[in-house]
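Lab notebook, bench 4. We co-purified these components, and the gel suggests they stay together. Before we commit to crystallization screens, I want a quick structural picture of the whole thing.
Request: model the full complex, all chains together.
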Amino acid sequence: MIANITKISQLLLILSLFFGANSLKATGKQALKGTVYDAENLETLPGASIYISTINKGKIADKKGEFSIELNIGKYDIAISFLGYKTYYATIEIDKKHKKEFFLLPKIAEIPGITIESRSYEELQREPVTGIQELSSTQLDQMPTLLGESDPMKSIQMLPGISTSSEGTTGFSVRGGNPDQNLILFDNTTIYDAGHLLGFFSVFNTDIIDKVEIYKGDIPGSKGGRLASIVEVNSRDGNMNEVKGTAGVGLISSKLSLDGPVIKDKLSFLVSARRSYLDLYLPMANDETLHDNTLNFYDLNIKLSYIASKRDRISAGLYKGRDNFANNFTAVDFGNRLIYGEWQRFFNDFTYSKATLSSSKYDYYIDSKDLGFSSLNWSSQINDITFKYDITFNTQNSGIINGGLNSTLRTIKPGIINANSETGSYNENRIPKSTTAEHSIFADHTIALSNKFTLRYGVRYSLFQNIGNATIFMFDDQFNITDTIDYDGNKIYNTYHAPEPRAGFSWMITPNITLKGSYTRTKQYIHLASNSVSSTPLDVWFSSSPAIKPQKGTALSKGLFYKSSNKKWNHSLEIFYRNTDNAIDFKDHPNLIFNKAIEGEVRQGKAKAKGVELMSSYEGERVNGWIAYTLSKSTRKNQWINDGLPYPSPFDRRHNLSLILNYNFSNRVTASSSFVYYTGTPTTWPVGRYRFQDHIIPYYSDRNAERMPDYHRLDLSLSIKQRERSFGKGEWSFSIYNLYGRKNPWMINFQKAENKNMITEAEMTYLFSVVPSISYTFRF
Amino acid sequence: MLELSGCTKTITPELDTSPEKLVVESLLSNIDEMQTVRLTKTAPYLSQKNDEPVTNAKVEISSINKTYRLKEATKLPGLYYIETEQFKPIAGTEYKLKIELDKAIGGDSTKNYSSKTKMPPPVKIDSIKLTRLDTHWYISASFKDRGNGTNHYLFDMVKIDENNRYRTADLKIIDNRLFRGEYVEDMIIYTIDKTESTKIESGDIIELSMSSINSEMYNFIEGVNRETSQIPSHFAGPPANIKGNISNNALGIFSAENRDTTSLVVQ
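Here is the predicted assembly.
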């Protein structure tokens, strides 16, 4: 029986190929000729790229903005894109000689907001990658915000399979993974800490963001280095024709962006700055000691984009952001600094390459003052220099071939402590620095085996090296240091390498329904020394080493995707399974602060996550929105923790529901609402107590055996755009966060009751009750 | 942020309760008048009662050549003692603790528990100093670290005025990672807010003790400090039970300290 089915399906496959070939013979060829224009000033756009997704064929417009492609008679999906312009999608029927004009909208003409990669439906339907989200920029731009700050890192937490690591923060967990298993790239450059002020705000200024792409577990070969997800945030290019600007005033920060041509149609600039003024609110705090404190952050973005020739585009950018906090005793400042240059080259109609050289630095500095002997300053930093090269061949008949390499040289100086003045008497103390290199080469092939079946397969080969000078510690099986080894300059003293195979398929069962599946192996060589629910800016990154094996991830997912014929409804159902070997966890009471041998605190074990994700979205004229629900389970098992018994991951959220609903009253007035619900975070609570001297000591349950109360919240927002005037256009945004004032516990502390000997109590802290906010943005 | 919009409230969550367990507390000392071992039981976390003593146990402390039997205090049930006159621990010597209960506790199948510890080498405070700055008092000490390896220290402070003896509840510990083998001058040990009820006045006596302790005790106290501190649980990582050194999963610790005390009169 089975043999018969196999034979029949083989026959069907052959027949379908045969009919496919036959239809080519039976029909004639026609040239699709066209010209690409700027929709605003009607100038032609030389170098625009034309891509016929139905047959994986492409062309680049010539110096007059014209192109010509030979096509068979039939229907085709076409995508036309150009740097600084919104990609144009259409379905075109070729039946006679075609001469067509295409108009591309400059990106600046869009509402600046967040676009989560917006590909044509056909393209997405065929793409053999699961777990990429497609959401329109408008949907995300309308989402209610906390304190008026729209934030891409919080918007993505509304998607299935992604949940916040704790209320109000930019930290997130993807499919049960740790927040440090997400790689966040800004313009292809790693960001080590994407949050300001303990993560309540992200480092991304939405005025300059072009798009955000998220790969949840199913990661194409060109990307890697982390197990759970890759989030790519890209900035837009400056306007090549005229100077434009945006100014925004909110409750806690203000921002200003300017962009425009340096040389018209050749070179543009983009400058943006944002600064918070939370300090202004401190004198209102109940606690008087806070009144004179410093508490602020800033971001600065600069980008230059240059069209060197019709085939070459070069861009360079800088990002610098910093938080400052100071009171009478301590000053802390921390932040990221990125510098990058990127060169894109279109060799010919089918070959495209991108080379990026970038440097990323994250550091923090703590200065303690007026403490006599103990006064000290303490600094820590991580520094990356990365080169990436990526080349894509869009072959006529053999699909898309993508290959390239990545190379990063990483230096971590986990901590240097110095006595800071004449009064300080500490010796200088350094935690040995670590130098590592992480390389990878990759190749990926995507091919349409038939009209309905597309296959993607590839491999990434990663190589990791620990390089001297270095001091490393050897441990016995109980994690006691047995030996210290010093390695001299530039010697590679430890290497890990492994193939990371990736594969996926998409099968269009009907024109409305697609089945997709994928398999991904990944390795992670860098880890964050944090074991709390919320990471802090003072956490340090540490590399794999002889004592710390790389984390190894396997992800499997399958999904059914439906789109209604009128293209208004989208439904998807995905199931996933993730397995992690050598997952990082820490022993009980680890010492993660200023520890020379942090490896001795790490306990590697196994982690598993599985789940179902459902999403339905509707995009109508007046109403749009989506509902996303995830049912998942995420556990860990580690011989050193919880007596070797499995325990829930701190990011295990059994049920996670989000609902977004937007209503456009008119072109100028839009109301939005969002609702979030998730199962309480697993936690460890006391199940008894005892006394030691005058202290009450809690006796705890198994690790994460209890749960915090469930979380839910409803937000509303209203945006009113002013009429366009000759000098620009303004927009008011009103938001109410947590409309019904739910007191969601942020943490529950168990402690001795104040002024009562030997009496214990539980105290809950909640962060936000009803928080209204207002902001005003002016675009000119 | 927290200050601006956060709020706290006392709640009564439904907590599970584990079966009772034996708790041992004993810190042998070169200075105290008595060497004591206190035996109690765990209680439900939100219990309003005092901890329940474990009475009628057979408690013994022994070195290589001698065994001492401890007596239970009649007025303080659960407290077993021996006078230091009869038994004074010596640096470098290992001591063993043996406990035999008259009946098993909670879900335990055994009535026997044991532990061992070693008396650490001595330490000497050179001088102490009291400084007043703005709104705080700072009590600092100067001493020489012995060097050779990691040393651990525990501090204790007592303020004596006309009527009272006030002892800090803070368990201050430090290791010598940052001053190995150095002469440490005026290291601030205690900071006292002048507005506190313990405010210091002229004529008061400040007594500062510094004890050399072993790493087991240091880690235990570090655990106590962590589990009783006001670090918001959100940033503290998963809590975990403090590792003691008593056999058969009993809680608590049996250790020894080598203490030196110096005092000054507030001018």
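The mean pLDDT of chain B is 87. Worth comparing against the SEC data before the next meeting. The radius of gyration of chain B is 21 Å.
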